[in-house]
From TrEMBL:
GO molecular-function terms, A-Z: DNA polymerase binding
Composition skew (Basic and acidic residues), residue ranges: 781-794
Region (Disordered): 778-838, 1296-1342
Subcellular localization: Nucleus
One cellular-component annotation, GO: nucleus
Keywords for the protein's UniProt record, in alphabetical order: Isopeptide bond, Nucleus, Ubl conjugation
Chief localisation class: nucleus
PANTHER family membership: FANCONI ANEMIA GROUP D2 PROTEIN
Protein name (Swiss-Prot/TrEMBL): Fanconi anemia group D2 protein-like
Gene: LOC112905571
Compositionally biased intervals (Polar residues): 808-834
Keyword presence, Nucleus: yes
Length: 1342
């Protein structure tokens, strides 16, 4: 019996009561006293230490009773009462260690008791049971032992128990191993766990979690991390990824974490892109992974830096994965610094075309689950809002719009979350007035494609009406387009009736207002409301004319319903605009825009509108008689193209009389808007109005402009302006007609436009204070004065410019308004040609269809149209017509691709994709004509023996040729750089575009075509005679490089840029190109030339610059090799070299051997020395500012990447390292002198960098001193206080302004033209500026 054993004797004497009933075992004294008594009794026994075996034997006997065994493993209860077994005395229990635990703390018993426990553990784990509760009880006494007699033996026994256990038991044992195994055995047990992980992958997560809790040395941990990395990359699992990833980054170096992230990206992308989202466990695993990454990013700075470094290092868009966007979202969520970093990286990637909307589609399709959407909705909205807060960044806006649309229409977004999305946009629209409204409203309008979802938020969107006062007119139009689309129309529910009534009341109030701005708002609002009222669900597909539906202008004859409702509102709007031509012009333009943008308008309404507007136009503007003279100006019918036999009664457009007679009801200002409206109503059949194309116009008869006084000249100018607008609308109306007779007449009208525009600009120089009428009435933007009042006219040029022959008209008796206005003796020739081009005149826009005449062949001979046109003869273009049309296409392409459109331009209805598709259709013909121009240019250059400043290079013919060449190059550059080509859905369009550029191409893929075209365009540098053409040529090569990042294309970019920089540049008048615009072009060429150049090559280039810069003395001096660089723009080249050095160092320093690091930093130090010499020779404020700014950034890179390597190499390459330190010392001394000089000169732009330089220099001193001392080279280091000297090395005796005039004058000697803005992120973080530091003297060293 166990009661009579020696074990029971020891237990009893130690105040332990074994309870054989239901209650727990009880101790009647403190646990420490129990331990003391057991140890004392054992040691005082005569048979010690053999008596220990007898105690263990008694314990084993006790354990034969399962109930007693379990109680011995469970906690005891402290009760000092004698009758401790009663329930009443142990109600307030004080739990103590179990009997096994107490005995394990006795050294002589520990090994045997551990054996007893392990034996029972093995028995339990050998059973095929899922219940591990008993195993957990057996393992508990072994945890956290105060000492272990035989640590290795315990580890071996636990290993044996682990290896022989079933799966569930192994999980239980692995979970408690860190609590049982002592630190000295962690390495050994870790190896066992790794082997077990290889043999049983299902234990991976539990093992890695265990390994995270073990104290391992670097070697063991590195080996284990490699194994884990192999597992996670070869067989990624959503279940195990969080714990594996946490193990990989824990206690890892920054470089190690970066490598891990780089290798784990594909695995994480595979896990997160799993499309089987219907399974709850997959969704929960994704949410768990994201939350785990979020927590790790919040706590681990190296992880944040690693993520940034990996994403920044990807240079091809095809290499990016949606996981990169997810990681940036998580980084954005980590705080202020993470937010700033994520924004910079994201915007840089989007603008460079590396992040495309396809990534967003994939991210939202498979990555996001409800938990992630809910958690990060606010973060994503913040990111989208920040992208919208960048003016004129189309790529960012397009990305933000896609992001908002994907959010709004996502399957896991509920109504409350959509409300948050809309609320975020409405708030953003109200920030800074007009700044972000347009982009926000475009996004809200895109939401209307899912109308049922958006209708739920109509009340919320009605709050936009409160912001109307701060919106531009185009934005007011968008607001009403949005709201009326939700509240007006056939399919709108009855619940929207109240909103519709509210909008109608607001429109009536706006129309009745006397304030111009509010009246304008009322007009555009009314048109938008009419659009949605008159819009039918399905259009009438019949071929019936709209006049067959309704042929009366009386509103009362319209059928009741949407037709009459829309007509009544339109009649109300017309009535409120009749007395003001600007209001009426806006009304007509907006109504025309309505016809262009709405396909399914009610036919009865259109029939009524057709009759009303056609009658108004015929009654107001057409005349069959020549009006009497006004203000001593005689009128005549001019520019008539109609054959007298083809018209019953000759008629014309009465421009002159209506221009000179001021009338509120019949104003010439509404001629073009009303005709545009009328021709759109006749769009399906222009036969009824085709006589207008050839009809003449009543214009002033001008024989000699000098015979007119100033007031009369202004009238003539206004007539010319309205005539040009009229002809432009005619061209837009009839350019698509297939009749060859009409095509010839369209080309003749284009010639008239060209001639009239030249004449208008010539006359404007006679009255520089004259303000032209408005062409459009949708904003405050109008035509400005050609010169400012206080601007003096420049003297006439010495050279005589050749005049182009006057274009003849069909009617030989017609006299042009300026046939004699260009004689040498006339007053009109007193203005400089450059002055005539200084002001852009805002004419009526030509339709996008005016690209069609460019399909005609180009003839350099002037074509004179006769009265009889051969119907078999194909129309041709002369060089002026070709140049005019291409220039117009360039302007349209720029406006469309960059979304830089006027307030309510009708081009907004044109899709960029459709427009580029039209361009692709015409482009082969343009390229054919371009080849002819290119050949003519090459021949002319050859005839001038490549002397580009020869007088023959600036003839009238050469001006046309160089202008046409430049326009075609700019057109290709503009279209090829369209951000939409980055979207995979436009890949076919891009391929077709590249095919059109070269029809004889033998390439079969887009990448091959890009390489082939780069070789073709690289040959055109010689024909670039103006600087802008050169930069556009380089832009074409850059766009091709984005399409196919081939090294051959990159080399051609650098080569062409170099060839262009080697040329001198003159404008069309033979004057050297200078100024801010020229500097911007030069900067583009320099950036392209130096992009990606190695630091070693840059060192050679800086040395050559150092030699050549000595020749830049006078203003006209230029560099011997790069002849486009002169003294005036040398600062642009200097900035480019400094920037290239910084970028080269940052890119090369990442992956170099130690010896390569030495070479890199030596070349960097030598290049900085060369730049210092150059800065001293070309001393001006701009160069010094650039050098200081870039040098601080380079020194920071040297501190973070250079010094650690040099410390290692100092012992083996002492002389080389010391040489680098000495060269950098000279640079820091110059920077110190520069800072001192800036403070004396009180130059705030330089002084702002002094604290940063001081902090950087002090860090550099400490690091260099520590490195030298650690390597026993302290004799090479000497620390002292530098004297404050200026850039010439003279002592500065005081910090006051005394004696500072000379320094100040030197620093103010900066170039006349502004430096082009940098297109890079700031190298120096604002947060690193220590503005609170005193600007005292700086220390220097070694």
């Amino acid at each position: 019996m166990v009661q009579n054993t020696y074990f029971m004797e020891i237990i009893t004497e130690s105040k332990i009561t074994i309870n054989f009933d239901e209650g727990p075992n009880i101790i009647t004294q403190e646990q420490a006293l129990v331990h003391r008594d057991i140890k004392r009794h054992l040691q005082n026994h005569i048979s010690y230490p053999d008596n220990a075996e007898e105690v263990v034997t008694g314990l084993k006997t006790l354990c034969e009773d399962e109930n007693c065994f379990k109680k011995a493993l469970m906690s005891t209860v402290l009760s000092k009462s004698i009758n401790s077994s009663t329930q009443e005395n142990i109600e307030n229990k004080i739990y103590q260690d179990s009997i096994f635990r107490i005995l394990l703390t006795v050294e002589c018993l520990q090994s045997d008791i551990i054996d007893l426990l392990i034996e029972n553990i093995k028995i339990e784990t050998s059973k095929e049971s899922e219940d591990t509760s008993w195993l957990r009880i057996l393992l508990h006494p072994l945890k956290y032992l105060p000492f272990i007699k035989n640590e290795e033996d315990l580890a071996d026994k636990m290993t044996q128990a682990l290896e022989g256990s079933n799966y569930t038991s192994q999980l239980e044992i692995i979970n408690v191993l860190p609590d049982i195994i002592p630190d000295s055995q962690h390495g050994k047990i870790a190896i066992t766990l790794c082997n077990l992980m290889d043999s049983n992958p299902s234990l991976t997560a539990a093992i890695v979690d265990c390994l995270n809790s073990l104290e391992l040395n670097d070697t063991t941990k590195s080996r284990i991390q490699d194994n884990v990395l192999t597992i996670i990359t070869t067989n990624p699992s959503a279940d195990t990824f969080p714990v594996l990833f946490e193990f990989l980054i824990s206690d890892n170096t920054s470089q190690g974490i970066t490598n891990c992230i780089s290798k784990l990206r594909p695995s994480l992308d595979t896990i997160m892109s799993s499309a089987d989202d219907n399974k709850i466990n997959i969704q929960s695993n994704k949410a768990l992974i994201v939350n785990n990454l979020k927590s790790l990013m919040l706590t681990s700075r190296p992880l944040r830096e690693g993520v940034t470094h990996v994403i920044n290092g990807i240079k091809r868009h095809a290499d990016h994965k949606p996981v990169d966007l997810l990681l940036l979202i998580l980084l954005y969520n980590t705080g202020k610094n993470g937010k700033t970093t994520a924004e910079i990286v994201l915007k840089k990637k989007i603008k460079s075309g590396l992040f495309r909307t396809l990534l967003l589609d994939k991210l939202f399709s498979n990555y996001f689950v409800p938990e992630i959407i809910k958690e990060f909705l606010g973060t994503i909205l913040d990111i989208a809002s920040s992208l919208l807060q960048h003016q004129r960044e189309d790529s960012l806006h397009s990305f933000a719009e896609t992001l908002h649309n994907l959010l709004f229409n996502h399957k896991y977004i509920d109504r409350v979350q959509r409300q948050d999305i809309i609320n975020s946009l409405v708030i953003l629209a109200g920030i800074n007035g007009q700044k972000y409204a347009s982009s926000v409203l475009n996004i809200l309008l895109s939401f209307s494609q899912n109308k049922p979802l958006l209708e739920e938020h109509t009340l919320q969107l009605m709050s936009l009406l409160e912001l109307l006062d701060s919106f531009e007119l185009k934005d007011v139009s968008k607001v009403f387009d949005l709201l009326c689309g939700l509240t007006c129309g056939e399919k709108v529910t009855n619940s929207a009736t109240g909103f519709k009534d509210e909008l109608h009341m607001l429109v009536r109030k706006q129309l009745s207002s006397n304030k111009k701005k509010i009246k304008y708002q009322g007009i555009v609002s009314a048109i938008m409301m009419i659009k949605h009222i008159a819009e039918t669900a399905e259009g009438d597909q019949s071929d019936r004319s709209i006049t067959e539906y309704h042929n009366s202008s009386d509103v009362s004859t319209l059928p009741s319903g949407i037709s009459r409702e829309a007509a009544q509102l339109l009649k109300l709007t017309n009535t409120n605009t009749l007395n003001n031509p600007e209001y009426l012009g806006l009304f007509y333009d907006q109504l025309a825009f309505l016809l262009m943008t709405t396909l399914n308008l009610d036919k009865h309404f259109l029939g009524w509108l057709f009759e009303s507007m056609t009658n108004d136009f015929r009654k107001i503007y057409l005349t069959d008689t020549t009006p009497d003279s006004l203000n001593d100006i005689t009128f005549s019918l001019q520019y008539s193209l109609n054959n007298p036999d083809d018209v019953d009664t000759p008629f014309g457009v009465n421009i002159a009389e209506l221009t000179m007679k001021q009338s509120h009801t019949t104003s010439i200002m509404t001629l073009s808007p009303l005709f545009r409206l009328v021709r759109l109503l006749h769009e399906h059949d222009l036969t009824a109005i085709d006589a207008l194309l050839g009809c003449g116009v009543v214009m002033p008869l001008v024989q000699k402009i000098d015979d007119f006084d100033t007031h009369q000249i202004k009238h003539v100018i206004d007539c010319l302006f309205h005539c040009i607008n009229w002809f432009r609308e005619l061209v837009s109306a009839f350019v698509r007609e297939k009749s060859r007779q009409i095509r010839y007449m369209v080309l003749e009208r284009i010639s008239h436009i060209i001639h009239l525009e030249e004449t208008l600009r010539e006359y404007l120089n006679l009255v520089p204070d004259h303000v032209l009428p408005r062409s459009y009435f949708d904003s405050s933007k109008g035509n400005e004065k050609i010169n400012q009042k206080n601007e003096k006219m420049k003297p006439p040029p010495k050279k005589k410019s050749k005049t182009s022959p006057t274009t003849q008209t069909l009617n030989d008796t017609t006299v042009s308004v300026a046939t004699q206005g260009s004689k040498p003796g006339n007053r009109s020739n007193k203005s400089s040609p450059t002055k005539m081009r200084r002001c852009k005149i805002n004419f009526r826009e030509l339709d996008t269809d005016t690209i069609l005449p460019l399909r005609y062949s180009l003839k350099f001979e002037e074509f004179n149209m006769s009265t009889t046109v051969s119907l078999t003869q194909q129309p041709t273009l002369n060089i002026k017509q070709f140049n005019f049309l291409v220039r117009d296409v360039v302007e349209k392409s720029t406006a469309l691709t960059k979304q830089n459109l006027s307030d309510l331009s009708h081009f907004k209805v044109v899709s960029v994709e459709d427009y580029i598709t039209d361009c692709v259709y015409i482009l082969p013909n343009i390229m054919k004509n371009f080849q002819a121009i290119n050949t003519a240019l090459a021949q002319s250059i050859e005839q001038c023996h490549d002397v580009i400043d020869s007088p023959d290079m600036f003839s009238s013919t050469m001006k046309d040729l160089r202008s046409s060449f430049g326009n075609v190059i700019e057109l290709i550059s503009t279209l090829l750089n369209w951000p939409g080509f980055q979207n995979p859905k436009n890949s076919n369009l891009l391929d077709n575009f590249l095919k059109a550029l070269r029809k004889d191409s033998s390439a079969s893929t887009t990448d091959e075509r890009a390489i082939e075209l780069s070789r073709t365009f690289a040959k055109y540098f010689k024909q670039c005679l103006c600087l802008s053409s050169g930069t556009h040529l380089v832009d074409i090569l850059k766009a091709l490089y984005i399409i196919n990042p081939d090294n051959d294309i990159k080399k051609k970019i650098a080569l062409v840029s170099e060839k262009l920089l080697m040329k001198k540049w003159y404008n069309s008048n033979g004057i050297k190109e200078t100024g801010a615009v020229a500097n911007a072009h030069i900067n583009t060429l320099i950036t392209s030339y130096l992009d990606g150049i190695s630091v070693e090559m840059l060192c050679v280039f800086a040395n050559s610059m150092e030699e050549e810069v000595t020749g830049l003395i006078s203003k006209n001096d230029h560099l011997p090799k790069l002849q486009s660089i002169d003294k005036g723009n040398f600062h642009v080249l200097f900035r480019g070299v400094c920037h290239a050095l910084l970028e080269g160092v940052k890119s090369e320093v990442v992956s170099l051997t130690n010896n390569e690091h030495l070479a890199l930093w030596k070349n960097t130090a030598l290049t900085m020395q060369g730049l210092i010499t150059i800065a001293k020779h070309q001393e001006n404020k701009t160069n010094l500012h650039i050098f200081l700014k870039k040098s601080i950034a380079i020194l920071k890179v040297f501190l973070s990447h250079g010094i650690p390597i040099l410390e290692i190499m100092l012992r083996s390459k002492t002389d080389d390292v010391l040489e680098i330190f000495k060269i950098i010392q000279r640079s820091t001394r110059f920077l110190h002198h520069l800072c001192c000089t800036s403070k004396v000169a009180k130059d705030l732009s330089l002084i702002s960098y002094v604290p940063q330089f001081r902090l950087t220099l002090e860090s550099l001193l400490v690091r260099v001193k520590a490195a030298l001392v650690a390597n026993n080279c302290s004799s090479a280091f000497w620390l002292g206080t530098l004297k404050n000297r200026d850039l010439q090395g003279e002592d500065i005796l005081t910090q006051s302004s005394i004696g500072s005039e000379e320094s100040s004058s030197r620093l103010q000697n900066e170039p006349d033209d502004a430096l082009p803005p940098e297109d890079t992120d700031e190298e120096i973080e604002e947060g690193e500026r220590s503005e609170g530091e005193e600007n005292g003297s700086l220390s220097d060293a070694y």
